Amino acid sequence: MRRSVFLASLTLVLVVVAFTSVRSLSSGSVARAAGLVNFVATDDVGPWFKCVGAGCVAAGTQSLAVVAPGTDVQVSVFGETNTVHTFTSLVFPQGAANMPFDQATAFRNDTRSVTLDDPGLYVFVCKVHPFMLAATVVNDPDTDGLDLGENISLVNGITVPTSSDLATRLLRAFWLITNPLNYQDHNPATNPTLKWNINYPAGVPVRITGGAVVDLKTVLEARYGNNLTIPGPSKPATKGIGEVWVDTEYENTASKTKPGTATAVDTSSWKVTKKVSLPEINMNNPHNMWASIDQDLIYQTQWFDTKLTVFNRKTGKLVRNIEVGEAPAHVMTRVDTDQVHVTINGEDHVVELSPGGNAIQRVIPTQFAGDGAAQPHAHWMSHDGHTMVTPNSNTNDSTRLDLIPGTIAAKTPAGFLPIATGMMPDASKYYVSNYVDSTITCISIGAPTCKSGGGNVATKTINLLLGGGSLANYNPITGTGLGTSGALPIQTPVSPNGKYVVTANTLSGTITIIDTDTDELVKVLSCSAGCHGVNFGAKKGGGYYAYVSSKFSNDLIVVDPDPNDDGDPLDAGIVGRVILVADPDDVQSDDNVSAYAGMGGQGVLPIPLVYNGWVQKLPNAWKNQLTAKQRQPIP
Ligand SMILES: [Cu+2]
Question: How close is the Cα of 269 to the center of ligand 1, in Å?
Answer without folding.
Answer: 37
